[in-house]
Each structure stands twice: as C-alpha cells, then as structure tokens.
Amino acid sequence: MLESVPPTEPTGRKRRSRDETVAAILRIARDHLAQTPPDALSFRAIARELDLVSSAVYRYFPSRDALLTALLVEVYDELGAHVEAADAAVQDRSRTAKRLAAFTHAIRDWSLAHPNDYALIYGTPVQGYAAPEDTVTPAQRVTTTLVRIVADSWRGRAVPAGETTGTTLRAIVEPVDVFVEDATGTSLPGEVTMRTLMAWTTIFGTVSFELWGHYPAELPTSAYMDALIDRLARDLGLS
C-alpha cells in the first residue's frame, strides 16, 4: 500500500510568487477600504484587479475573516514599527518626555497619512468578526512602546503623590499590571499605571477626533497636540 505524501510548503519561485500574490491582495484590499467598509470587502472586486477569477483569491484567504485578520496584522505591525522607530530615534533614552513626544507625533502623523487603515484598527468593529489570537501581539506593539517609555522614567523612583491603594484603583490597574510587567520586566506604582492608561486613551481619542472632524475648524490641531503632550508628560512624571 502506498503511503500518502503530505503536501510540502512551496519553495523558491513558487514561494516568491505566492508571497507576491498575497501582498498584492492585501494592497488592493487596503485600497478598497477607502470606499468600502471592511464587512463589505469583495473578493470578486479584488480578483478583478489581479486578473484572477474570484475563486483564486480563496486559495490565499479562505474567508473574509481570514482576509480581515491578515489586514489587521499588517496594519498593526506597520503602525507599531513606525512608532518603535520614532522612539528609537531619540538617542538620549533618559529624555522620556522627548520620547513621549516622538511616540505621539508618530501615531498622529501615520494616522493622518493612513486614515482608512486607522479606521480599520481603531474604528467601528466589524459586525460578526472576532479578532483571533494572531492579532494580539501586533496590536500591543504601540501600547508596549508607551509603557516602556513610562517604565524607563520611573525605575528606582518613589511612589508619586496621590498614590492610593483603594479598592477602585486596584480593580482598574491590576489587569494592566501583568501587561506592564511582561512588557518592561518591572512594575509601576498603581497611580502611574492609572495615568499611563489615561494617557493612552487620551492620545488615541485626540487623534480620532482630529481624523474624523470633531474639532472646531478654527482649532490649531498641531499646537493643541503639542500642548497635550506637554501636559501628559508632566502628569506621567517624565523627564
């Protein structure tokens, strides 16, 4: 009796061809998001631009959810890499306030340049889609960078004024503490963790308001962001 031979991974030219096709599908899908909501992405329309039959796209992405997952991972990784590079460009690592400014401007600049990608990862959730575990690590790259900036500033320092061990604060920060320790190898005072959580949501809320036109037209958004960064740095106790 002949033994079945398991399928092998494509190599060489076939591997390159597959990678190029996957990259092309993702690029076209991201272009389509400028006009089409994520839950309405059409495999037929994507295939048409690639001169393929629609069934061919399913060889690379067996479902809409598989395509959405690949898009999320790619976009999260792209933003994460952009933010990490901005932070790494600050040569004096002790200047954590400057690192926060680089971090925040990187998020804002990337988001304004890629509004549809930003909407995919931070906009309205896609109905019926549940992001799988594959998206978690890419999604955490931006947050990890912020936490590391704050942790670098607080190593060896005393607990800030206003620190409390109240039940409410503990209930809020304890779920975050595990993430902080995994990302930095250290822990933060509860008050600092709380302020970091507030800074994270404030930064993305501010970017979202600007991106989707919720500010008065007369508001100088760049100056407002600079003022906000300055206040966040002081609130976080950055140097």
Descriptive overview:
- The chain is mostly helical.
- It has 2 domains: 11-62, Arc Repressor Mutant, subunit A; 65-236, Orthogonal Bundle (Tetracycline Repressor, domain 2).
- The chain has 10 helices and no strands.
- The longest helix has 25 residues, at 64-88.
Please identify which CATH superfamily of the largest domain we are dealing with: Tetracycline Repressor, domain 2
Write the CATH fold name of the largest domain: Tetracycline Repressor, domain 2
Q: What fraction, in percent, of the residue positions are helical? A: 55-70%
CATH class (first level) name of the largest domain: Mainly Alpha
Query: pLDDT under 50 segments (min length 5)?
Result: 1-5
Number of β-strand runs:
0
Percent strand equals under 5%
Whole-number mean pLDDT: 91
Structural class: mainly alpha
Question: In a nutshell, what does this entry contain?
Answer:
It is built from ten helices and no strands. The chain is mainly α and 239 residues long.
How would the blueprint of this fold be written?
Elements: H1 12-32, H2 43-49, H3 54-57, H4 64-88, H5 96-113, H6 115-122, H7 136-154, H8 167-184, H9 190-211, H10 221-236
Helix pairs in contact: 4-5, 4-7, 5-6, 5-7, 5-9, 5-10, 7-8, 8-9, 9-10
Which structural traits does this protein have?
mainly alpha; 10 helices; elongated; Tetracycline Repressor, domain 2; 239 residues; disordered N terminus; Arc Repressor Mutant, subunit A; 0% strand
